[in-house]
Amino acid sequence: MFQHILVAIAFDEEKDPERALQVAAKLADGPTRVTVLHVKDEVPSYAIAYMPEDYDLGLKQAIYDQLSVLAKRFKNGRAVLIEGHSGRTILDWAEKNDVDCIVLNSHKPNITDYFLGGTATVVVRHAKCSVHVIR
Length: 135
Known about the structure:
By secondary structure, the protein is an alpha/beta fold. Helices cover 41% and strands 22% of the residues.
């Protein structure tokens, strides 16, 4: 059905990736590529000066290790960790890498989502491919 599925993972307490991974597994068949992706917020330059020298590198490695475990659940799975603003970065990566379906979790919207927009809202509004939102 799909050639390349992107599963956007957020490591927040309220966003358990399990349901998104299960949906991706149902949508994937045979040769479908599945990318398990996390967008890490950039650490502000003013804050990095107060952190241990290898903090950011260690954090990136820990996140990538978690993503790799999740990606191994798929025959053609791979882990990707990138930095940026989550909604826009997911869209840009999906377009550059020929993704034809994005699977991501959503949360119950709060007042800030109405003014600023949540990640799922941005992806749904602007994606050039199918989007499956888990609620």
